[in-house]
# Entry
Amino acid sequence: MRVQSILIAMVMISTSASASEDQCYGYTPQPNIANYLGASLDYSTAERICCNNHKWAEYKGYLAAPEVDFFSRLDPNNETIFYDSVCGLPLFIAPRGRSFEEFKEESLYHGWPSFRPEEMVSENVIIHSDGRMESRCLTHLGHNLPSGGVDRYCIDLVCMAGEPLSASDERYNILELLDESVIVHDELDATEYESKAEEWSGNYTDRSMIITIVAVVVAAAIVASVLFAYAIKWRKSKKDTVKEVEQDDVHIEDLS
# Structure
């Protein structure tokens, strides 16, 4: 399982094409995510992963890095609302339908914040047919990797570390482009809200495909390494041969 998670982080293959100029509606993540909940998040990673990417993820275990220590910054006795890092839409309310420890254990086990259907603000999140997930603001979020027959959303921390926007923030323009089906922060009653997300959406990232592709890439890399080593050895051998011939020529000249 750990190997699979590492491979998924390496590849995160998406059949729906690569990142486009439309991601995040052309905006960048909120500057203050760098100090999310008092942690130190890498802003350049957020900009790259959330707004210029459909395939890659922050590294496995980033949420537990010393400078992040995600779960120590949450209130274990209450639900937390997690917001889009660019436009500030509410994305997840967790833990819900399980304990804080269960939420923490599953997330740490897989290496990324992991949410269940009950915890998703379904009006604000899109799950594509290949499992790739993004917000209605077109911020890349992560991938759906079902576990136990139920969808499990494997989300990049840097892309869910935002806060509600003020009308003076230029990113607020994004919210004005969205239709009325989205739920902005002021409209969300977290205590009454019930997600419409299906337990099994049928849209998920195919791990076997990822592993197969990575296996091919690794095999190709090994072959390339062997060929490179052989080429180096062949060139050295050729050099030695030329050197021996030159030495023989010198000896012949001496004899003449």
Q: What stands out?
A: Helices lie at 2-11, 43-51, 100-110, 172-177, 207-255. The CA atoms of residues 129 and 202 lie 8 Å apart. The longest strand covers residues 90-94. The beta strands are 80-83, 90-94, 114-115, 125-127, 132-135, 140-144, 153-155.
